[in-house]
Structures are given as C-alpha cells and as structure tokens.
Amino acid sequence: MNRVMSFCATVVLAALPAALLAQTAEPTPPPGPPPPGRLMWGLGFLGGMPTGTFGDIVGAGAGFSGHLVLTAPGKSFGVRLETSFLEYGSESFEVPFAGTHGRVSLDLNTSNEIDRFAMGPQVMARHGSFRPYAYVTVGAAYFATVSTVISQGGGSYDDDYDYGVLATTTNFSDTTLSLAAGGGVQYALNPRVFLDLGLRYVANGNVGWLAEGDLVDDGQGGARPRPHYGKTSLVEFTVGVSFGR
C-alpha cells in the first residue's frame, strides 16, 4: 500500500512542475485581451486495480470515466469534475422461469459496481502538443451489487436472439467519501482533439461492499448479502479522448 501511494504521489508531483514549466515556457503574448477561458470534456476507458485488503479479495475491474475541466482566462489552473463507473466483479447463472417446469430458462447476472463523482482543482499546460496535468478531487463513491434477469426472445431456434431486461434489483449498496490524486498527459491530435492518458490513486473511506459469492441463499427462496466493511482504495488508469480548445 505504501509503495502504491508513493508511486502515485510521484506521478502527481512530476506532472505538476511539468505543467507549470510548459505554461511559462511559452512566449509572452502581445498586449491585448486575455485568451478566453477553456472548457474541455472527455470520455475514456477506465481500468482499476484494488489495493490492500480490498485487493486481496477482488481482482482488477474495468469501466469508463468522464471529466469536465474549466480553466480561467489565460490561466493554467482550473476546476475539474469527474465521474466514473467501475465493475470489479460479476456472476452469471441460468435460472428456470417460474411456471414453465424448467422448460424455459432466464439469465441472471449479478455485478459489483462503483459509481463515483468528484471535483477539485487541476493545473495543466495550455499550449504545445504534449500537455501534462495534475489534480486532486473530493467526492463520493457509491458501491452497489445489482442483479438483473434477462430474457431471450424473438425468432425461431435458428435465428439470432433478442435480449431484454425483465427485472433489476439492488441487493446491497453503500456510499462513502472518496479522495483522489492524479495526473497525466494530453497529446494534441488536432487543435481541438487530444489523446488523454491518466493515472490516479483513489482513496475511498470505510464502506460496505460485496464480492463474488457474497450473496448467499437464505433458505427461504431469497438471497442474503454478506458484506465486507473497510477502506476500498484503488489505482486507476484512463485511456481516452478529450475535446476542447
């Protein structure tokens, strides 16, 4: 854990002076009105590696993330809003459809998810092909285990099947404070489109969560959650595209 935190802190500390140096290295603009503020937004693939006790129980997860960054006119400092969805475990079963005497089966999927929303300050180079950035954010992380029953219907035996959701239930959920420190670099593909590579350490507070196998039969036809409690920190990386000026 300490090595992971030290590594992520090194990334942030390295990106911060690089962003400032890249900004100050630009020639002084001629007198006139200041450049406009910049609004950027982006989407990307998210990968997550749980750490500590959380990582001892669950494996790597995947999902997607999005962000919005607004900087003041002529400044490299701004405000970052970010949101993400990460699935860190799932189970799938076939279950008989009630009343069909086992002749019709349904797919029962259970997924363990983290939804996160946070905001905080960011510093970033505003010029050049490579634009390093660093940020810290604070927000909330929502942990949920959700089960969905999916039907197969339409067409004959030889045709493709159409899938439809019949029912969804949240089996367990909890929310906690979430802190993050991260950094990365954007590479300009054109003046308004950037390849965005990022890395962050997410420190979630004490929270209840489920792993695969933590929904157990209660003996009465239902499922009883058997949650874990504790801190759930992750190292996350993002690969995506940002848009703006």
Describe the overall structure.
- This protein is mainly beta.
- It has a domain at 2-19 and 37-88 and 112-140 and 174-243: Porin (Beta Barrel).
- It is built from 2 helices and 12 strands.
- The chain has helices at 2-24, 52-57; strands at residues 38-50, 61-71, 77-96, 105-124, 130-153, 162-190, 193-204, 206-209, 215-217, 223-225, 228-231, 234-243.
- An 8-stranded antiparallel β-barrel has the order 1-2-3-4-5-6-7-12.
Task: Tell me the series of helices and strands, N- to C-terminal.
Answer: HEHEEEEEEEEEEE
**How are the strands ordered across the major sheet?**
1-2-3-4-5-6-7-12
Q: Can you identify the CATH class of the domain at 2-19 and 37-88 and 112-140 and 174-243?
A: Mainly Beta
Terminal CA distance = 38 Å
Quaternary organisation of the protein chains: single chain
Radius of gyration based on Cα positions: 23 Å
In short:
The chain has 245 residues and is mainly beta. Helices cover 12% and strands 62% of the residues.
Task: Quickly list its features.
single chain; 245 residues; mainly beta; Porin; eight-stranded antiparallel beta barrel; 62% strand
Would you spell out the secondary-structure blueprint of this structure?
Elements: H1 2-24, E1 38-50, H2 52-57, E2 61-71, E3 77-96, E4 105-124, E5 130-153, E6 162-190, E7 193-204, E8 206-209, E9 215-217, E10 223-225, E11 228-231, E12 234-243
Antiparallel strand pairs: 1-2, 1-12, 2-3, 3-4, 4-5, 5-6, 6-7, 7-12, 8-11, 9-10
